[in-house]
């Protein structure tokens, strides 16, 4: 729509129609939410109609729970903490923060995110200079920026929805989706590196889409593998990969090589002069290196896919369903116990009334006989 708007004149009716279409696309995800809520409501009604068979287990007595422990020294506490830190639970259980940070799975995911997010963020930050170097007019460069923003949102929605469908229906692991996103971003990097004519439209869309698609996958993987207990902290740890990757690939690679090429075009120095670089060579070497870094991220993500293959083949949401069923069972037990107390209280009250009324009837009969 933005590209068409730049090329043709829009009337008021055309603006209204395009705005209506965009609003429709914006609110279209609400259909998924309403459908899911309706499905949950139906499942809840079916559960209430057919209550599950309950097994009541007696809690252990207090005498069995109480154990005598000697006070531990500081060295033994440190040793136990280190042992616990390097003895993580099974995937899907709640990791502690230290257990997650030293986990090989987290380090692999973090490294893959540095490569993927750093590469796409470098392209996004330099899109204006890239367009200028390749000879695009200023209006077209503004279009590239808008396309990146729009496709960034589209990537977030598409990756979240598609990965959930593929995982639930085909047991397609989310780390493999990360691999696919990184491979797709390499296409955009190569288009920028070789300066294919009129290819920056496609490159900007691919870059924005892949940058947006990467983050829902990373956050979902963190929550699924390391649990939800410390998710807010681990979420921010995953986000830290973006500035690290941007510094390594944007500042140290793209920025440095751009300045070197610009200095060659301006007589070997940029002190107090024009720093603009024109031509394909301005970003050729940097984006070839960025493509190589992204391929490293692809290999790292494949290692993560191999390590978590058995986890994603199983039911990763079984623990949450078991907890929900246990809570529902406890609620039903509490309700049934309350219902059984009320008839007993009524029986006791009726028995007391009969006991009080019995002597009166016998006393009345005795007086009448006298």
From TrEMBL:
Keyword Lipid biosynthesis listed: no
Gene3D superfamilies the record matches: MFS general substrate transporter like domains
Taxonomic superkingdom: Eukaryota
Protein topology in the membrane: Multi-pass membrane protein
Transmembrane spans: 12-34, 100-124, 136-154, 175-194, 200-222, 234-258, 287-306
Compartments, record wording: Membrane
Alphabetical UniProt keywords: Membrane, Transmembrane, Transmembrane helix
A GO cellular component annotation in the UniProt record: membrane
Segments for region (Disordered): 332-370
Name of a matching Pfam family: NFD4_C
Record-given protein name: NFD4 C-terminal domain-containing protein
Species of the source: Eleusine coracana subsp. coracana
């Amino acid at each position: 729509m933005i590209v068409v708007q730049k090329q043709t004149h829009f009337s008021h009716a055309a603006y209204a129609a395009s705005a209506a279409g965009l609003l429709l696309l914006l609110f279209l995800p609400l259909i998924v939410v309403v459908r899911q809520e309706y499905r949950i409501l139906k499942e809840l009604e079916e559960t209430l109609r057919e209550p599950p068979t309950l097994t009541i287990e007696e809690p252990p007595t207090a005498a069995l729970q109480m154990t005598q422990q000697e006070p531990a020294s500081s060295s033994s506490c440190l040793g136990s903490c280190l042992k616990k830190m390097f003895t993580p639970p099974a995937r899907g259980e709640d990791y502690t923060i230290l257990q997650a940070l030293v986990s090989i799975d987290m380090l692999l995911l973090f490294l893959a995110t540095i490569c993927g997010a750093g590469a796409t963020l470098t392209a996004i930050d330099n899109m204006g200079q890239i367009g200028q170097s390749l000879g695009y007019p200023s209006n077209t460069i503004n279009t590239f920026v808008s396309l990146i923003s729009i496709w960034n949102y589209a990537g977030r929605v598409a990756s979240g929805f598609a990965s959930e469908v593929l995982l639930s229906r085909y047991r397609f692991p989310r780390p493999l989706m990360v691999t696919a996103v990184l491979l797709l971003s390499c296409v955009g990097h190569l288009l920028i590196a070789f300066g294919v004519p009129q290819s920056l439209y496609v490159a900007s869309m691919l870059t924005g889409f892949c940058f947006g698609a990467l983050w829902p996958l990373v956050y979902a993987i963190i929550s699924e593998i390391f649990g939800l207990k410390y998710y807010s902290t681990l979420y921010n740890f995953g986000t830290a990969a973006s500035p690290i990757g941007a510094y390594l690939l944007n500042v140290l690679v793209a920025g440095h090589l751009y300045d070197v090429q610009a200095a060659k075009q301006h007589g070997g120095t940029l002190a107090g002069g024009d720093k603009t670089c024109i031509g394909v060579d301005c970003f050729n070497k940097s984006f070839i290196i960025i493509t190589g870094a992204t391929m490293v991220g692809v290999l790292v993500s494949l290692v993560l896919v191999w390590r978590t293959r058995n986890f994603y083949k199983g039911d990763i949401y079984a623990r949450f369903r078991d907890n929900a069923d246990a809570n529902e069972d406890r609620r039903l037990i509490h309700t049934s116990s309350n219902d059984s107390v009320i008839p007993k209280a009524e029986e006791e009250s009726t028995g007391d009334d009969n006991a009080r009324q019995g002597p009166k009837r016998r006393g009345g009969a005795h007086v009448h006989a006298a």
